[in-house]
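Handout, page 2. Input:
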Amino acid sequence: MPLIAEPLHACGLVESSWVRACAASFPRHTHDELVLGANLSGCEHIWLDGQTIEVPAGAVTLYNPLAIQGSTFGPGGVEYISLHLDIDALQQLMRDNNLGRGHGCPTFEQGVLQRPALYRSILDFAAAPTAVEQEPALLLVLTELFEQTQVRSGEQAPAIERSVSLMRSHLHERLTLDQLAQAAQLSKFHFVRCFKKAIGVGPLQYHMQLRLIEARRRLRAGLHANDVALSLGFYDQSHFINAFGRVMGVTPQAYSTASRRR
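Output:
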């Protein structure tokens, strides 16, 4: 296998791809974009800033715009996710959210980074199946990218409480990130950043957890799985079964049957 790149998601800010390579290389080159990579498996060797550096599985690579870099992939093979972030769109996001000056090329620590949270967020974005799920996943990537200091304990606690209150009062529908950020009275970027730090998961993931908690309560009360799915605003039975199974490991019907036996 030489080098294969399969496109994943593309929008005004980012283009992403899943790359598999074996006994191949990228000669020294550069990009206009900020480039992030998450090494899934294998070992890549990069040339950057006059050095050859090993990139193990689980590491992140970051190349600032116009950095000269090259890559070599050994015979054992490498798989990684690559994100190319458009600089103009990134600068606009910085201006909209008061992240530094918001003009000129943003620069970050580049090279091989051991940043588990950033690595995980890149994988979550790559795995997001729909545009609705891609936006908050991308905001979490940017949150981890811009994260320089820890959020103070309790920062934006009232804003988080307002968004959670909206979630609890709307278990019957799927809220959008815009609705939740508006309730928190924060920009979407700052809302996702603060919510993840305070709660530990993204806001849409948390809302889904609350809806599934209510689903389990209704199933234990004897309601039929079809009625539960409809009353809690799931698109259809398949959507409900998949969401429930990812968390509980069983179908709603199996959970309901087991609950009646107790």
